């Protein structure tokens, strides 16, 4: 025996390869519980040719690799199916998780909001992560109803199979329970049914008017989920054109009233009557709302309601009048009634034919003894005899409330005109307001409010008999727990009604003496409480996101400098602010566990701005939104059109400019994607100074493509300067346009006189020929007109002839004070210098031109139109000049002024001019000046033809022949003396001339 053992050992020692084979053969494989395994916790797991670390490594498996298991040794090694590595392949159980093969390799989270990820296959394992509804997940294996999943940065991750689906789910809409069980289509003719709660979802069917469907729930934004399996599994309709109801006991009924029943536009006697239905008439009932029936009534397009007390399910037989008057009483649904009338007659019998025996004031509560079939109540109460009746039209049936006074237990409680949330809101009550409760209807209290006319109701859930809660130190609280139970009362004995995640912010309604907070927030209704042990009280911060305004900011675990530093933040780093405690902000930082606080002095609402490279920017978009902050999430506060120039105050790190400019105050931002930074040009108007024409390029340099050209002498609008190049505005070229600044000249200036020359694409002879073809006229000595000779036309057409004031730019200001202008004004225009300046500024018209026009039209300010004519409105609302004979028949009489003779047609100038002024609202000389300037500017100067000098108005060198104003070829020159005379009376006026040059 000893010899055999030694021999065996000798053989083993001599042949290591034989030893491996022998051991491998000797390892008995046991059957595995799961068919597959997943590599976990190892980036490269060694695969060996035998079950032990002394076997050769024949390959490696990456983390999260799934392999098929063929068997298991007793010492913790798995034989795997890995033919691509080696025929015999083993791995250690230490880095392998046994699983079953999942049905699919990919799934989606199917939960109301999110699902917990745990470190093992069961709810007892620690939570390591959460996944959101609809999120895609890679499934590695299945273990007893739990899926092992692949998550970056986390090794051991499992989720319950109950929350996994293999089809990508639609975004779930959170449903709340509806107040009614059914709904009826009303007034839409045909209502679209969609597969989700919104107009973006596909239409899967339609419902006809008066169709009734079952309601399964309601979204917060006004959509109902309905039971419509014959249309689609998920079926939604909009609340518009839809009336929530309860299902009636019968779909058909008969009017059971003494004569007829009123049809009202809402479910209550306070609604307007819109029709009536005779006794015995059949009605189709489509829904019920608090003892009122919604009926299908062909005579009405809108919803129609009748009181259920006047509807019976059996056909009515004719009765004698005596039988009708001697009606049997039925027991009312509610024990008492509240008078809803300033004075209600009490009668000796159930009808207006009976004697009045007493009267009841508004809000009197009486006991209801019984109800007749046609809506009269027999009542009892203090001071009433045995037989006392009132009309049900003025009684609101109620039950007696448990207390007659209560307190509002809500920050702001809606008061409605009926006992359900579908009724209109008529008032709001603040927390702890004391109210008088006169009755109870289901879950609603009927109130008597001194400052509200009409019926008033509040939900009973928000009224308490006493004020119990103490005010909390701070308005809100932050959850500091991975999951916090919300309970129906202040203690762990109360039911759990919801759960809150870490960092959820809730409103603190009050605090109990033992440390529980009553809270409110999204998804919470009625009584909701949480333990103060897991709440950090805070105030709401001024903004929810901020930026670090310090080179390096310490983050501490408590709101003071004595607390430990747990993190540091760099300048302009964005942070989520969840609350404020004194001078500290509570933050939510994804990469820091536990509480985090920073000092408020080092957080700002905006990024620190850097100085822009250039002082101004030009809008390069047909419409650019101006926002209240640097991003598209901020509100739009204005808009800028193409080529608007704004001042650049600063630039954010992500390309937004803070701007300033006319019409903007405070914080104003635009996206840098639509702004071209520029410097201010020397002038805004320039002229081309090239030999023939100037190339227009798409960028500020000769390397950019040419997109157009501009002839010599052409006027251009300069909006900005970039390194010696001008950015210009060209209406006939889309996209950016630039010209070299070396080839642009501005006005020739001598003192206050500025002269520019504009070249036109027509020769003088061509222009003269065109004018002659139009049969030009010249004024004759006799006062009429006669044909003008070519020499006469050439004399006036030549820009270098005659008075230079015919080339005065009527768009430029004269640049003098109101006092100087007052020196040339007279009559009713005396002292109106500032008005002419304001009119010129607002409408870009030369003040002297306006004054010249006004003095000419008003006879130096003495005409009736200038001194004022009274106008009023007749019975038809039409304007009419006031006379002694019609004054008593006119309304809204005002004195009107018309200093430019606008609308004063020759056949009746004063009447028509005054009526035009009345219709324009010119009730002072100032209003007439500014309003008339607008007319002149739009009609003659700033029109599509840019005829901004008297010469251009008469001859239009840009397009000779049309449009041209005035018949007399000498018109432009003849207008000049008055204008020149006015200029000569002013000290140092500004003169801008634009003289045409023909080729």
From TrEMBL:
Coiled coil: none
SMART domains: LYZ2 (SM00047), SH3b (SM00287)
Organism: Salicibibacter cibarius
Protein name: SH3 domain-containing protein
InterPro entries: Cell_Wall_Dynamics_Protein, MGlyc_endo_b_GlcNAc-like_dom, SH3-like_bac-type
PANTHER family xrefs: FAMILY PROTEIN, PUTATIVE-RELATED, GLYCOSYL HYDROLASE FAMILY 19 DOMAIN-CONTAINING PROTEIN HI_1415
Molecular function in Gene Ontology: amidase activity
Highest rank taxon of the organism: Bacteria
Region (Disordered): 317-350
SH3b domain span: 34-100, 104-168, 177-246, 250-315, 334-399, 466-539, 543-607, 611-679, 683-748
């Amino acid at each position: 025996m000893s010899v055999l053992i030694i021999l065996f050992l000798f053989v083993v020692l001599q042949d290591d390869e034989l030893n491996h084979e022998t051991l491998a053969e000797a390892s008995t494989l046991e059957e595995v519980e799961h068919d597959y395994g997943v590599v976990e916790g190892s980036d490269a797991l060694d695969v060996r040719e035998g079950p032990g670390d002394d076997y050769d490594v024949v390959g490696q498996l990456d983390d999260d690799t799934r392999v098929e298991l063929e068997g298991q040794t007793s010492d913790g090694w798995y034989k795997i199916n890995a033919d691509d590595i080696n025929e015999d392949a083993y791995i250690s159980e230490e880095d392998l998780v046994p699983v079953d093969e999942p049905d699919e390799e990919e799934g989606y989270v199917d939960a109301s909001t999110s699902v917990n990820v745990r470190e093992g296959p069961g709810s007892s394992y620690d939570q390591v992560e959460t996944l959101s509804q609809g999120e895609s997940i890679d499934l590695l294996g299945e273990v007893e109803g739990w899926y092992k999943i692949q998550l970056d940065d986390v090794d051991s991750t499992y989720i319950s199979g109950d929350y996994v689906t293999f089809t990508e789910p639609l975004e779930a809409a959170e449903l709340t329970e509806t107040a009614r069980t059914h709904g009826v289509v009303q007034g839409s003719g045909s209502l679209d049914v969609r597969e989700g709660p919104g107009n973006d979802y596909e239409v899967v069917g339609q419902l006809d008017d008066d169709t009734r469907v079952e309601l399964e729930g309601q979204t917060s934004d006004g959509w109902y989920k309905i039971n419509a399996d014959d249309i689609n599994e998920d079926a939604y309709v909009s609340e518009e054109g839809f009336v929530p109801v309860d299902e009636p006991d019968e779909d058909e009924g008969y009017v059971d009233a003494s004569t007829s029943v009123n049809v009202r536009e809402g479910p209550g006697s306070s609604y307007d009557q819109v029709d009536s239905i005779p006794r015995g008439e059949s009605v189709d009932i489509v829904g019920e709302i608090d003892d009122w029936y919604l009926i299908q009534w062909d005579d009405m397009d809108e919803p129609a309601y009748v009181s259920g007390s006047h509807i019976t399910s059996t056909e009515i037989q004719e009765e004698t009048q005596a039988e009708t008057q001697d009606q049997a009483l039925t027991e009312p649904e509610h024990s008492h009634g509240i008078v809803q009338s300033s004075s209600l007659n009490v009668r000796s019998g159930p009808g207006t034919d009976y004697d009045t025996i007493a009267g009841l004031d508004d809000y009197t509560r009486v006991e209801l003894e019984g109800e007749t079939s046609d809506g009269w109540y027999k009542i009892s109460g203090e001071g009433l005899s045995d037989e006392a009746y009132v009309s049900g039209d003025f009684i609101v049936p109620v039950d007696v409330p448990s207390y007659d006074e209560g307190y509002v237990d809500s920050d702001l409680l809606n008061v409605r005109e009926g006992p359900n949330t579908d009724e209109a809101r008529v008032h709001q009550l603040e927390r702890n307001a004391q109210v008088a409760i006169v009755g109870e209807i289901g879950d609603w209290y009927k109130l008597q409010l001194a400052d509200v006319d009409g019926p008033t109701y509040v939900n009973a859930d928000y009224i308490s008999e006493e004020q119990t809660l103490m005010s909390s130190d701070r308005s809100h609280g932050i959850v500091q727990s991975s999951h916090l139970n919300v309970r129906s009362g202040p203690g762990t004995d109360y039911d759990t009604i919801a759960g809150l995640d870490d960092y959820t912010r809730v409103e603190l309604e009050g605090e109990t003496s033992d440390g529980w907070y009553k809270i409110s927030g999204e998804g919470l209704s009625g009584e909701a409480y949480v333990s103060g042990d897991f709440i950090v009280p805070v105030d709401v911060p001024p903004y929810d996101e901020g930026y670090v305004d310090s080179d390096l900011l310490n983050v501490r675990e408590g709101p003071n400098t004595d607390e430990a530093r747990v993190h540091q933040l760099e300048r302009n780093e964005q942070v989520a602010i969840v609350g404020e405690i004194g001078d500290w902000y509570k933050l939510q930082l994804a990469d820091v566990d536990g509480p985090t606080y920073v000092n408020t002095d080092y957080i700002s609402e905006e990024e620190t701005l850097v100085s822009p490279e250039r002082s101004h920017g030009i809008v390069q978009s047909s419409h650019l939104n101006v926002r209240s902050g640097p991003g598209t999430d901020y509100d739009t506060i204005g808009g800028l059109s193409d080529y608007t120039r704004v001042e650049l105050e600063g630039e954010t790190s992500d390309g937004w400019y803070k701007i300033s400019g006319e019409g903007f105050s405070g914080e104003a931002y635009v996206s840098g994607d639509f702004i071209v930074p520029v410097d201010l040009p020397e002038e805004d108007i320039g002229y081309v100074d090239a030999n023939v024409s100037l190339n227009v390029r798409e960028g500020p340099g000769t390397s950019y493509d040419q997109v157009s050209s501009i002839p010599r002498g052409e006027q251009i609008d300069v909006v900005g300067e970039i390194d010696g190049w001008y950015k210009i505005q060209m209406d006939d070229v889309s996209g950016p346009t630039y010209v070299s600044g070396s080839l642009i000249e501005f006005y020739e200036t001598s003192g206050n006189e500025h002269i520019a020359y504009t070249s036109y694409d027509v020769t003088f002879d061509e222009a003269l020929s065109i004018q002659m073809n139009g049969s030009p006229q010249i004024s004759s000595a006799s006062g009429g007109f006669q044909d003008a000779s070519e020499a006469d036309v050439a004399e006036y057409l030549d820009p270098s002839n005659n008075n230079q004031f015919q080339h005065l730019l009527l768009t430029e200001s004269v640049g003098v004070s109101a006092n100087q202008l007052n020196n040339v004004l007279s009559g009713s225009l005396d002292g109106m210098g500032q008005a002419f300046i304001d009119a010129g500024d607002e409408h870009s018209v030369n003040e002297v031109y306006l004054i010249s026009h006004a003095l000419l039209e008003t006879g130096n300010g003495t005409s009736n139109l200038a001194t004022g004519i009274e106008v009023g409105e007749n019975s038809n609302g039409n304007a009419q000049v006031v006379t002694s004979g019609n004054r008593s028949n006119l309304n809204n009489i005002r004195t009107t002024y018309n200093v430019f003779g606008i609308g004063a047609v020759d056949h009746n100038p004063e009447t028509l001019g005054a009526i035009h002024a009345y219709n324009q609202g010119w009730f002072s000389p100032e209003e007439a000046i500014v309003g008339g300037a607008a007319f002149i500017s739009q009609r003659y100067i700033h029109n599509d033809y840019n005829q901004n000098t008297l010469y251009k108005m008469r001859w239009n060198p840009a397009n000779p022949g049309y449009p041209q104003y005035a018949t007399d070829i000498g018109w432009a020159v003849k207008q000049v003396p008055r204008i020149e005379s006015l200029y000569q009376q002013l000290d140092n006026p500004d003169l801008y001339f634009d003289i045409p040059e023909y080729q």
